[in-house]
Design brief:
The complex is a heterodimer of chains A (273) and B (269). Chain A is 74% helix and 3% strand. Chain A is mainly α. In chain A, α1 runs antiparallel to α4, α2 packs parallel to α4 and α4 packs antiparallel against α5. The longest helix of chain A has 39 residues. Chain B has 11 helices and no strands. In chain B, α1 packs antiparallel against α2, α1 packs antiparallel against α6 and α2 runs antiparallel to α3. In chain B, 83% of the residues lie in helices and 0% in strands. Chain B is mostly helical and 269 residues long. The C terminus of chain B is likely disordered. The chains are: A mainly alpha (273), B mainly alpha (269). At the A-B interface, α2, α3, α5, α6 and α7 of A face α2, α3, α5, α6 and α8 of B.
């Protein structure tokens, strides 16, 4: 097959291992790293194969435990690319390791957009529609047919996505690196990544205050309206930047999380939110 | 007791299996309800419930914390109650939507306040290079997350839905509201972690660009991704041009020195 051209047998085995592990990416889904735990679990075969040096191994492990979130069927494609970049990093001196996470972050948004609408918007609805008809007719195979119909494309995308990502990465990353184009690519990826993080900050971090100024029982102006007139989503933005500053000052994540929980309860007690 | 156990098992297989086998849709009502029905000895009722709920919840997909209802719990409980009421499907349908909304709230609580704190250990373990620890934690969080969730249908079937509602109602609303407020703010931590990887003084302005576009135009994420891609390509093209311009003066410089040498050679001849 052309897809696996130039990939050694060992590497093919590693991609297959990654494929199986990538199934479980969201098993440890959580608000801190989302699929980060599963991502590093999936990358472990590669990390252990490429890095003989303990220090490099730990650094790679840390890289891939960071926040990661995308539509699961598309995840293995990004893992494949990340793996090919790790290989490049293990072989070349002075590889820009920042580029690995920049590429990951810039890919996860667009792929999630495509994957969500394709798998969950279209294909799941088609499969379920068929299964509902079968179930209404009393066919006991309805759930099984639904699962097979949905999951065959799901698994095929995942399997070939992984191979495609790895072979594309192996083919092009080295060339890009040699031409000095990787810097430009990393910068472009970071720009896209930052735009997506900015958008996700507004769409995923939510806050609404119920506070309002009132006179003689009549509501004069709600504080939320005032906040919105300054800048829509100012609170999510400030909270996110606050967390960013705290992380920068090496405050532990667990402390930040409990801080937010305490903040939520205090705001609720004070009837601010 | 048996009924409570098998309904909990069906819900667990659904929600946990869904995540374990690559978002395989095991948690959909069309799967969970017939499974619960099969285990309770009435697969036909399960199939009918599954078909009706699947149609109701067609538009509901669970993506992390952003959703409206968690249908697996509703499917399991609706099947159990319908079978106990002698196959009366119509009577249970109206109560399942509140159940599903409640189910999602509880699942989000577990997600935010159990999985969140546990997951901070991922970064610690990675720093120590402890791969076995990461793998273990990966599966422990999975089991705790959905195991805790499966306790809800277990007790709900054991005591009946009314008791469950009473217990939940006894939690002060101020605390519940506070937890919801906190849950809505928690994704900020994940965003902050992403920012740490991407932030640089020269590029930070693009973060605000994304925020402004989302806040005021309320575009779908995919549209912002497309705009972002175009911007990234334009910037890359400009960088390529700059790189080309940097390269060419150097060549010209070489050219002049070469010609200078020639002149010198001419002069000395």
């Amino acid at each position: 097959m052309k897809l696996t051209e130039g990939i050694s047998k060992d590497e093919k085995k590693l991609v297959r291992k990654m494929f199986w592990r990538s199934m479980t990416m969201y098993a440890s889904v959580n608000p801190v790293t989302m699929g980060g735990g599963g991502f590093s679990y999936s990358m472990m075969p590669f990390i252990n194969h490429f890095y003989k040096n303990e220090e490099d191994r730990v650094a790679a492990l840390e890289r891939h435990t960071q926040y990661f979130s995308t539509t699961v069927p598309c995840a293995s494609f990004i893992m494949g690319i990340a793996a090919s970049m790790e290989k490049e990093n293990s072989e070349k001196e002075g590889f820009d390791v920042e580029s690995i996470n920049a590429i990951k972050t810039s890919l996860m948004g667009p792929l999630a957009g495509i994957g969500d609408s394709l798998f969950w918007g279209v294909w799941r609805v088609v499969s379920a529609g068929l299964a509902i008809n079968l179930a209404n007719a009393g066919n006991v195979l309805a759930p099984i047919i639904f699962l097979i119909m949905f999951n065959v494309p799901n698994y095929l995308t995942r399997y070939y996505g992984g191979i495609l990502g790895y072979s594309l990465g192996s083919k092009y990353i080295e060339k890009l690196y040699a031409n000095g184009l990787i810097e430009i690519l990393t910068k472009a990826a970071s720009i896209l990544g930052l735009i997506m993080v900015g958008a996700m900050t507004i769409s995923m971090v939510k806050f609404n205050t119920t506070l309002s100024f009132s006179m003689k029982g009549e509501e004069l102006m709600s504080v939320q309206e005032i906040l919105d007139s300054i800048f829509k989503g100012i609170i999510p933005l400030l909270v996110t930047l606050g967390c960013f500053k705290l992380l920068d000052k090496k405050v532990g994540i667990i402390k930040i999380i409990f801080g937010i929980v305490a903040l939520g309860i205090i705001l609720s007690l004070l009837k601010i939110a | 007791m048996y009924d409570a156990f098998v309904v909990a098992l069906a819900v667990f297989v659904g929600v946990a299996g869904h995540e374990m086998f690559g978002m395989s849709m095991l948690s959909r009502p069309i799967v969970v309800a017939p499974l619960a029905g099969l285990l309770m000895g009435d697969i036909q009722t399960g199939l009918i419930i599954g078909a009706s709920l699947e149609a109701i919840f067609m538009g509901v997909v669970n993506i992390g914390i952003s959703s409206t209802a968690e249908p697996a719990l509703a499917a399991g409980l609706a099947t159990a109650f319908a079978i106990k009421m002698g196959g009366n499907v119509d009577a249970v349908i109206p109560i399942v939507f509140p159940l599903a909304v409640l189910g999602l709230q509880l699942l989000n609580m577990i997600f935010s306040f159990v999985c969140g704190p546990m997951a901070t250990n991922f970064l610690k373990l990675a720093k120590e290079g402890d791969e076995k620890g990461i793998v273990k934690l990966h599966y422990v969080i999975w089991f705790v997350h959905y195991g805790l969730y499966a306790l809800i249908p277990f007790f709900a079937v054991l005591f009946g839905a009314n008791v469950v509602m009473t217990v939940l109602d006894s939690i002060p609303p101020v605390i519940m509201n506070g937890l919801t407020v906190a849950g809505n703010l928690l994704p900020a931590v994940g965003m902050a972690m992403l920012l740490r990887m991407l932030w640089s003084k020269n590029l930070a302005v693009w973060f605000f660009f994304g925020a402004v576009v989302m806040a005021y135009f309320e575009l779908p994420l995919i549209a912002i991704a497309a705009i972002g891609t175009i911007i990234a390509i334009v910037m890359a093209q400009r960088d390529l041009q700059l790189k080309g311009m940097q390269a060419s003066p150097a060549q010209q410089g070489q050219a002049t020195t070469v010609s200078g040498n020639q002149e010198e050679e001419d002069f000395f001849q």
